[in-house]
């Protein structure tokens, strides 16, 4: 696996869970748990990217590298791109975007996502798993992805894809449908291209930023996750679930 860095975009504002990065899980702020995941990988550097002084202060207290970024960014991808510019990273460097609300992400999946870009020609990479239920297949909050034979993304959607034309094909479809996981690796030059482009109509319709990459013709490799990612934290119920799973403060 080649050299890579991890950037954790972290913002204080959250409609469903205000102050999310600093909410306590097993005696520590959530951003501490996410940072610990990143430091357990082979990343050469780990950075927390934020625009909030409260997150900056908390992160510096546990020794993290913090990059203060513009409050005007519309997405975590924009925030990542600014970190790249501030650090003047080379165009071929691999940057992994580890979301700040993923304290249960296995470190092995961060490394797996980065390693997918060792393959020549791919500019972005992400992970997916087989869907496990018809409910998830029909749920618009569960993003689906379909790939070509080489494992490159053809399309992402909140709709049930591939579509079942009749009952006979439903079982086949449910056996092949993939659930997308929100972790990404980019080459720095591809990240620059993405943020220089306005959102396309597909992206605005589905509210899925990765569709901008497909619209631009960027090759996006999809790996089948080697482990089961833990659930992200978006609600009070998710916070309680993470507390149960993490159990006690980590070393």
Task: Write up what this structure looks like.
The protein contains ten helices and eleven strands. Helix 3 packs across helix 7. The protein has about 250 residues and is an alpha/beta fold. Strands 1, 4, 5, 6, 7, 8, 9, 10 and 11 form a nine-stranded mixed sheet that branches. Strands 2-3 form a two-stranded antiparallel sheet. The longest helix has 12 residues.
- SSE pattern, N- to C-terminal: EEEHEHEHEHEHEEHEHHHEH
Q: How large, in whole angstroms, is the Cα Rg?
A: 18 Å
CATH 4th-level superfamily of the largest domain: Spore Coat Polysaccharide Biosynthesis Protein SpsA, Chain A
Q: CATH topology of the largest domain, what is it called?
A: Spore Coat Polysaccharide Biosynthesis Protein SpsA, Chain A
Topology:
Elements: E1 4-10, E2 24-25, E3 28-29, H1 30-39, E4 45-50, H2 53-61, E5 65-68, H3 76-87, E6 94-97, H4 107-115, E7 124-130, H5 134-138, E8 144-147, E9 153-157, H6 167-176, E10 178-187, H7 188-195, H8 201-206, H9 210-215, E11 220-224, H10 236-246
Parallel strand pairs: 1-4, 1-6, 4-5, 7-11
Antiparallel strand pairs: 2-3, 6-10, 7-10, 8-9, 8-10
Helix pairs in contact: 3-7
């Amino acid at each position: 696996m080649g050299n890579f860095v991890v950037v954790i975009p972290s913002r204080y504002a959250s409609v469903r869970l205000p102050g999310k990065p600093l909410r306590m899980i097993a005696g520590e702020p959530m951003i501490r748990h996410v940072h610990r995941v990143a430091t357990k990988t082979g990343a050469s550097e780990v950075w927390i990217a934020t625009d909030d002084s409260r997150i900056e202060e908390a992160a510096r207290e546990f020794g993290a590298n913090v990059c203060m970024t513009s409050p005007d960014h519309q997405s975590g991808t924009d925030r990542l791109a600014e970190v790249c510019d501030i650090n003047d990273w080379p165009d071929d460097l691999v940057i992994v975007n580890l979301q700040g609300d993923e304290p249960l992400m296995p470190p092995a999946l961060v490394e797996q996502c980065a390693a997918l870009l060792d393959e020549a020609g791919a500019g972005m990479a992400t992970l997916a798993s087989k869907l496990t239920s018809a409910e998830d297949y029909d749920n618009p909050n569960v993003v689906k992805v379909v790939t070509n034979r080489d494992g490159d993304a053809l399309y992402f959607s909140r709709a049930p894809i591939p579509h079942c034309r009749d009952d006979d094909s439903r079982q086949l479809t449910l056996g092949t449908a993939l659930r997308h996981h929100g972790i990404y690796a980019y080459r720095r030059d591809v990240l620059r291209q993405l943020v220089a482009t306005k959102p396309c109509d597909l992206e605005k319709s589905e509210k899925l930023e990765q569709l901008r990459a497909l619209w631009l013709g960027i090759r996006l490799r999809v790996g089948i996750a080697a482990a089961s990612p833990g659930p992200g934290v978006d609600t009070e119920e998710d916070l309680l679930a993470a507390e149960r799973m993490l159990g006690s403060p980590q070393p």
